[in-house]
């Protein structure tokens, strides 16, 4: 009888990404259990804007709901970028988990820094209510897009049906949709933006474009 020999895996294990997916599912379940009515309104966001008709006090009381969705968003961002890197940067396969942690941590820190910077600017220019509405609108759509792309992540992880450029194209499409949502809000506030055009352009460059470029440079340098 021949000696049994261990055969090394030819493909990287999905153990860590499976754990990440389970955490994401757990976060969604917590949102559904703890904030059922609001979560259902959130799911109907594209067809029914009632989700935005929330009293300010209710928004503050649902801090945990927003935190759960924010954590979910960060994890999905890490999974998406990891799947794209897997297909187009195979050299990252030897350190996928480290890359995933870098993206999740970097994305989370970036979003928090942007959020508090925007809040400080709002206080500085006495525009708290306007910026508060804008941030709520922006983060709500961003969380919804993360929820929408999450099933595609699961399909790609375990079937590779969206490999190659397909998943990249889908991800870009979701980013474009997110941009259209933001442009819709800008158009709604067109007069206000026009009256403060200089500050608006400064805001776009400093807080909407530059941070993502910095995150990209940091992640690429570390890898």
TrEMBL record:
<feature type="transmembrane region" description="Helical">
    <location>
        <begin position="198"/>
        <end position="219"/>
    </location>
</feature>
<keyword id="KW-0812">Transmembrane</keyword>
<feature type="transmembrane region" description="Helical">
    <location>
        <begin position="97"/>
        <end position="117"/>
    </location>
</feature>
<dbReference type="InterPro" id="IPR025367">
    <property type="entry name" value="DUF4271"/>
</dbReference>
<keyword id="KW-0472">Membrane</keyword>
<feature type="transmembrane region" description="Helical">
    <location>
        <begin position="15"/>
        <end position="35"/>
    </location>
</feature>
<feature type="transmembrane region" description="Helical">
    <location>
        <begin position="144"/>
        <end position="161"/>
    </location>
</feature>
<feature type="transmembrane region" description="Helical">
    <location>
        <begin position="167"/>
        <end position="186"/>
    </location>
</feature>
<dbReference type="Pfam" id="PF14093">
    <property type="entry name" value="DUF4271"/>
</dbReference>
<keyword id="KW-1133">Transmembrane helix</keyword>
<feature type="transmembrane region" description="Helical">
    <location>
        <begin position="63"/>
        <end position="85"/>
    </location>
</feature>
<protein>
    <recommendedName>
        <fullName>DUF4271 domain-containing protein</fullName>
    </recommendedName>
</protein>
